[in-house]
Write the structure tokens for this entry.
Amino acid sequence: MSSPLTHFLDFTIANALHLAGILILALLCLRLLRGAANKIVKPAGSPAKAAQQAARQVGQQAGQHAVQQREAQTQAVADKVYSIGRKIIWIVAGLTALPELGISPWPAVVVAGCSLLAFSIGAREALRDVYAGLQIVMEDQFVAGDTIQAGDTVGRVEQLTLRRTLVRDGRGALVSFSNGEMRTVSNLSRDWSQAFVDIGVGAAMPLEKTLQVLENAAAELRGDAAWSQALVDGPRVLGVQAYDHTGTTVRLQVRTVPTRQDEVCRELRRRVQMELQRQGIAIASGR
């Protein structure tokens, strides 16, 4: 009767060569997997990406920090992918080597298949979240430190894993999102932010004088070294936004570095108010 012990005694050079071939193939697959995982990290650390991120932030140090965040995030994903892939390769290699030792691999294959099927059914949502997390990282949608809007929640990303995203909102609450549940995400920390400032003045005020006053306030802000680095474009006077019997609404536009539009708009409103008061221009009643 055949047994593993009998087959072991019949072990030949051919069996040894088969095992060696399986081992070499497994090592080759591991090497290819490591190379593929490393390619995930390279784009995040490339000079072009670094220069682009530095331009998005205020100052070189902030830009370099953003690049490091992205590189660390993609490195973590690459390590996770390599770890999972390595286990799969060694399991397949082990099952392939069993016949050379006189052991049938089919019982182990059936058990592994049933376990995988049960896991895929029970962990369907978890797999969906992991897949969505991989897309977030690979497409560089956002990283820890970015300000995003997901649904009605706006806040700073505190932590990003393959399964979930933690966001600190304006109230200070830590909101947890499953990556698979986030259908639409707005990244408020990329390239630039934009805001509009509407100024209402009395209907009897001369329009040309009002426009000139607003342009003076905008030019003063543009020329202030303390604020110029926060500006990407403007402030610029767009013109009359609305007009009725109560007064005229004039709109200004400003583009800033990411997430600084609110403080820039507050400073712009302060300077506009001071300039209007100096020139004796009354604001619109009821606005």
In short: Residues 44-62 have pLDDT under 50 and may be disordered.
